[in-house]
Amino acid sequence: KQWYQRRVRGRNLRRSVQQRLSIQVGVIKGQPESRYAQPQDIPRTCPDSDEEVEQEFVEKYNSIVDRSESVMTDVRDEYSEITFVKQQFEKWKLQQSESYKNAYITQCLPLVFSPLLRLEMLGWNPIQPSCPNFEEYSWFLCLMTYGYREGQDPSTNDPDTNLIPIIVNKVLLPKVTKLIECCWDPFSTQQTKRLSELLVLLFEDYVPKKKKSAEKDKLIQAIQHQIEQLIIHEAFLPFTAERSSNPDSKIEQFLSFQYMKCIKILKNILLWEGVLSSDIVFKLSVDSLLNRHLVAFLQTSQNYMDNVEKIDMIIKTFPVSWFEKSDKLLPQLVSFATYLASLVQIIERKQTQCATDSDRKLHKTAIRKVMSMLLRINAMDLVRKAATSGM
To answer: Which of 203, 72, 194, 60 is nearest to 123 (CA)?
Structure first.
């Protein structure tokens, strides 16, 4: 039975291959298959330009925001205004506290206020430069004092003191996650700065660090995914055997342009220091970009003096905090530091071949610069080894 089933599968596979070949032959002979594009199906007009697409988006966006203002026109103020809704619950809490607790109002408050503040923050986009801080919105200023009496200090045992953090976790974090997935350009330094500054504020002041947050995990995963896609599609440094020692050649100009793009990506990734965990930052910046692309690219370059300046660009992007915690070389930077040490040896060999004193002085300056860069990343062992071999 098994032999018969294998025979049937093999026969069906041969038929499918024959059918595909006949379709391809038919297309070649001028008998197009229906699944191929016909001449009349090809659009005869050019696609819209970026300006037209952007204008269409702005018009739709403004239309949605304008229509949102009329959503609550047929609803009474005590149900459509956060201030009045807050007053009703505060009155219940202060006058009938036992009934308030038995009704589990604390757990219901985020569900009650969420639709109203979602409506108010419909146009909130922290990626844009003119977007106000969420702490400036009326819902935040209103709910910040929920349940407090004038002149009375907030009770640390009152669970309603966590109302703002819960709303931030349940409403703002999902909205920011969706903006990261759909609107954020990780290649933009300004957008990345705005997002990272916002998330530093949210994570430090509103999202509990000890408790696990599913919304926070989703947000971090979205950031990591977007950066990984950026590296895959934009960090293009081809390894070619036709490298030239002339920096003005077309190949070297193109590669230099691509190198600067990778440097910008590296800077943007390191802006997430303090938001993403150290393991994720090292994985994205060092493992995925520095070692896999930048160091491998430098190793194929014949212009060693130019490499010194390129390496200096890399080290200037590193956060100072990486080297303040310990005086030892970080394990993630061992490959990078090893290349720097090998570059010292290469320049030393080139120095012995210099014909003029000015060239020898130039190579000596480059060696000192690379050694100082090794010191900046705490590669003391490699510095001693290079100094010993130089003697």
So the answer is: 60
- Asked if residues 187 and 200 have their Cβ atoms less than 8 Å apart, the reply is no
Residues 37-85 have pLDDT tens digits of 443 443 444 445 567 777 887 788 888 888 888 888 888 888 888 999 9
Which residue, 152, 226, 221, 149, is CA-closest to 185? 226
Residue 357 has pLDDT above 70, yes or no: yes
Contact assessment for residue 78 and residue 88, using Cβ atoms and an 8 Å cutoff: yes
